[in-house]
């Protein structure tokens, strides 16, 4: 199994401007040794490590960590998509063996239409041509701009992070439902079942709170375009790793057979991230040694 979305950071590096008292529980280091026991308990053998800071230095830090961490199968990094230096930086990063994709932090951009800037679109075309993945971190209000960008960037291999963060705590799933359905109508776009517990009420959540979201993305994307992600350690603000993993399994299992569960909990991420990156480099997908692939359980 593969966790398609987790983070590491070292606070002293100073990259994480979004940290503050509102996320006090995250203001410490989270590194491979902290995650490994949770992966073992869940039977997960590999992860996709995703950027959490808008700096080149953090991407380099994550790539170094990935090289030293066998269970990290790939890194989704960051480059300034509107930067004049993008072509040089991208050419250098593409040589990193474990780079599998890029992610701008659209949710934090002052300009909701950032993704439609001319230079951003030009650079997205380069990402599309490379075959690497593109992670979409956004809110519902960004989705019309995202759809327009995807329509103007044919071939871009995109995945929606955290189901676009629906307003679960407020009980408002509209217009999120329609916007997500419209995005899913674009062939090839994927969606991560991730990051939902922290969108639920801060006083606690139940699987019933998450069910309408999970069932909607399943109906829109189908089991062939969904992938499980823990969003660890951000998820620890609301739930343990095991609770997030169990919630995803229990919400999806009533609708999917073993083969489709295996796709959502590993096969889809392998094909999307690792297969795509390998094809871009013309090399075979590497597999971990000495760890059982397990079952979806």
Automatic annotation (TrEMBL):
Lineage: Bacteria, Pseudomonadati, Pseudomonadota, Alphaproteobacteria, Hyphomicrobiales
GO MF entry, a single one: hydrolase activity
One Pfam family named in its UniProt record: Amidohydro_2
Family statement drawn from the similarity comment of this UniProt entry: Belongs to the metallo-dependent hydrolases superfamily.
Keywords, ordered alphabetically: Hydrolase
Keyword Hydrolase part of the UniProt annotation: yes
Entry protein name: Amidohydrolase
Domain Amidohydrolase-related: 2-273
Alphabetized PANTHER family for the sequence: AMIDOHYDROLASE, AMIDOHYDROLASE-RELATED DOMAIN-CONTAINING PROTEIN
Organism: Lichenibacterium ramalinae
Record has rRNA-binding as a keyword: no
Listed Gene3D superfamilies: Metal-dependent hydrolases (3.20.20.140)
